[in-house]
Structure formats: C-alpha cells, structure tokens
Design a protein that fits this description.
With about 450 residues, the chain is α/β, with parallel strands linked by helices. About 50% of the residues lie in helices and about 10% in strands. The longest helix has about 40 residues, at about 110-145.
C-alpha cells in the first residue's frame, strides 16, 4: 500500500487550528479572520477521518468565500495552506470556463486537473522511497556497459577490481563525458486529432492507452554521454519499481478526500450583463455558475483514471466584488459557500511588516540575491518605512493592487544596483531613506509616469 505524507500522517494528524494559523503567520501578514476560517476547515477534515462510519459520509467540507481586493493574500493563504497539510492544490480562474455547449474549457476539467495533481504527489513520494535503489540499479547497468561480463571465471577477480575502480570514477563524475550505448523505448503511437470541443481529456478517454495496445512501443539504441544516460536509465528503473495502478488509485483517493480547489475571480461570473441573460447569443455567466454548482454539491466526474467524486473536495472561492456583490451569485451557489470572510485592505503599516517579517520577505530575497555578487545589502528602518509609504500612495493614486505594489516598487528601487552589481566593489551597501527618495520620488510625483512604470 502506498504510504505518502498526507494530513493523516503523524506529523499532521493532530494539527490544531492554532498551529495552522501559526504556520500561515510565517508567510502572510494579517488577515486573521481568513486564516481562522481555513484552519477550521482543515481541522474539520481531520476530525471527519475519526468519526464513526455511519455519519462520516454525511459530513462534507464547508466551502469558503473570500471577499477582498487584489493583492491582500487570498491566493497565498490557500496555497500555503495546501503546502502545510500536503494536500493536492489547484488554482483556477472562474473566467476560464464556459457554459456547457460552448467551445472552451468545461468546469469538470478542474476536477481532472486536481486528480492529476494527486497522482503526481503520490508518484513523487514513491519515487523518493525507491530513489536510492533505482540509482544503484542505474550504476550497475552503466558499469555493465563499460565493462561487459566475461564468461572466463579466471578473470573474474581482475574484473571485480577493475569494476570497483570504475565505480569510484563513476561516482566522482570522472566518466560523465564518456559515451555508452543504451536501449530506450520509442513510442510508435501516431498523432491523432480529436475533433471535439471538449478534447480527449474531457471525454474520459485515454487515447494513449487505447492506441498503445494497437501500436506497441519500439526500442532503439542510442549513443549518449553517461551524464545523460543516468537520467534515461533512472526513469526506466524507477518505472520497474513503481506500481502505477496503486499510485493512480491512491492519487485518486488523495484528491477526493483531501484536495483543495481555489476558484478565483468568482465575482466576474456573478450576475449577467445586459444581453447575457441567456435570451440572446453568448455565454451566460449564470450558466457557468450552474455548471459549477454540481461540483460543490457533490457529483461524479469521468476521467482517464476512472470516476472521481467531488463531495469531499474543499472549494475556496474568492473575488474582489468591486462591481458585483456576493448576493448576485445564484442562490443555490450562495448556499454552497456557507463560510464568508472579508479580507482587509493593506496600508503602510502592513507593507512594512510584509517587507521584513515573513520568511520569504522581499527585503530578505533581495539581500540574498546581492550576497551572490558579494554585496552585503542593508536596509535602514527609515528606508523600509519610505518604501511602504510610497507603495500605499501609489495604490491610492493609481490602481490598488495591494501587496503586489511592493514588488514593482522594489524592482524599480533595485534596478540600478542589480544592473551594476557585478562591477560594484563595496562589501556593504546601505539603502537609506534618501536613496529610496532619489530613485522613486520623481516617478511617484508624476502621476502619468507612475501609471506606466510603477
């Protein structure tokens, strides 16, 4: 049985909401209400695994609707959450989907993509378990190519000594440039064009498997460097050690029971514009909502790996709702999003925290990049404050893009230093308030210029 690290393993089985929020705090500033909501949702999943079977199937995840402007952390909270609990995660935009009957992606494609994520996670976990064994097998195959087996037993001792020396050179990389001949599989499946507005992946048909039985793969001999042969042979040996059927079965279970789908820009399909009510031509926004609804309620989706049930998938939806409002969603969809949380807009205070406190803070990132060039980059507190105030001002005077403004401001601030860094011979470079003002003040004051540059 496949044994991969999921939220049911010892390290995650007893994750409390407080622990989940604490982990999120390492990367995301503020937004306590949203963090609590997702933490409770994950804890309820853990609880569900421990309840009695007769009621377990009746307990379904409480889907979440996040409301807030762009750049406040909606996507990051969901992505970090999935990493913490090691769950399959998929981010999609609601605007990518079209109503059934129109050319484009149907909503069920997100379920297929989530299943593929689950299978990839399981496969990667299994590869890590057999990696050492596969590398040993690859090593032996390469040595067999370099020193073929001799039938003469009298030479066996000499051959073993030579093989041991070759193994040392192989491990040290001294033989990487040598060429050997290896056998690889060449697919003989012809290219097939599927004339369907859905495509083969949305028809629940694996054309590769179907045609693979008719057109078996052929083997061919290639002469390649040992450095490249390692990768080719590793894939072959791993394939021998893995149980693909078990991986697909466990990946499907993982996606069904622990998958998280982040459905962004749901406000863009809330309500219909004039002429989009379904009475005239064009894709109806409400039509897309009606197609999404069965997935949230719990339905069965056909995939290449079999049918997948959606009732236990956690859906986290999000939108700015600048033009529309949550009540513009169809009532049935509103009922399937029982947890609603509003995220706060970010100001200069939050920007200062974002610049310095998270583990992946921008200041830490740029400091690490300059260390590669031998420059010790130091930001004064006054410089951090000025960057935060500048970002807040730009959000107020142009378009409010939240914390993403920090990236554009920091990139412009560091542009000259990043360009000249290889030629800078200073061991320490201090970024102070005056330096920040000299690089940004003119652009900020010129509103027309800031619209294009920052």
């Amino acid at each position: 049985m496949v044994n991969l690290p999921t939220i049911l393993d010892e390290s995650n089985r007893e994750l409390t909401p407080q622990q989940i929020v604490s982990n999120l705090d390492d990367y995301i500033v503020g937004q306590d209400d949203a963090k609590k909501s997702v933490a409770i949702a994950i804890r309820n999943r853990i609880r569900r695994q421990k309840v009695k079977e007769d009621i377990k199937d009746e307990i379904q995840p409480k889907n979440i609707l996040m409301i807030g402007p762009t750049g406040v952390g909606k996507t990051e909270i969901s992505r970090r959450l999935a990493r913490i609990v090691k769950a399959p995660f998929l981010k999609v935009e609601a605007t990518k989907f079209t109503e059934v009957g129109y050319v484009g992606r149907d909503v069920e494609s997100m379920i297929r993509d989530l299943m593929n994520k689950g299978i990839d996670m399981v496969r990667q976990a299994e590869i890590e378990k057999v990696e050492d064994k596969a590398e040993d097998m690859v090593e032996e195959r390469i040595l067999d190519k370099l020193l073929p087996v001799e039938k003469d037993k009298e030479r066996s001792e000499s051959r073993d000594r030579t093989r041991a020396k070759l193994k040392q050179k192989l491990r040290s990389g001294d033989l990487d440039e040598r060429y050997i001949e290896i056998t690889v599989q060449k697919s003989s499946i012809p290219q097939v064009e599927v004339f369907s507005n859905q495509g083969s992946d949305q028809m629940g048909i694996d054309m590769g498997d179907m045609l693979g039985n008719i057109f078996p793969s052929k083997s061919e001999t290639k002469r390649v460097k040992i450095s490249k042969a390692r990768d080719l042979l590793f894939d072959q040996e791993v394939g021998k050690l893995l149980n693909e059927e078990e991986i697909k079965r466990e990946g499907k279970r993982l996606a069904e029971e622990e998958g998280i789908i982040f459905l962004d820009e749901i406000d863009k399909i809330a309500g219909d514009r004039p002429g989009e009510s379904g009475q005239g031509p064009g894709v109806s926004r409400q039509g897309v909502q009606r197609d999404i609804l069965p997935l949230l309620e719990g339905s069965t989706v056909r995939t290449k790996q079999g049918t997948m049930h959606t009732e236990n998938i956690l859906f986290i939806t999000a939108g700015a709702f600048n033009v529309s409002k949550p009540s513009d969603l169809i009532p049935e969809l509103q009922g399937r999003l029982p947890i609603r949380v509003e995220l706060d807009s970010l100001g200069a205070g939050e920007f200062q925290q974002i610049l310095t406190e998270p583990k992946d803070a921008l200041v830490k990132q740029y400091t690490a990049l300059m260390e590669v060039e031998g420059i010790n980059l130091e930001f004064t507190p006054e410089a951090i404050e000025e960057i935060a105030k500048t970002s807040e001002k730009l959000n107020e005077t142009t378009e409010n893009i939240g914390a993403r403004r920090l990236e554009t401001v920091m990139e412009k601030l560091m542009e000259e230093l990043s360009f000249n860094a290889p030629d800078v011979h200073e061991e320490t470079k201090e970024i102070d308030k005056d330096y920040v003002k000299s690089k940004l003040e003119k652009i900020v004051e010129d509103r027309d210029l800031s619209r294009y540059i920052l």
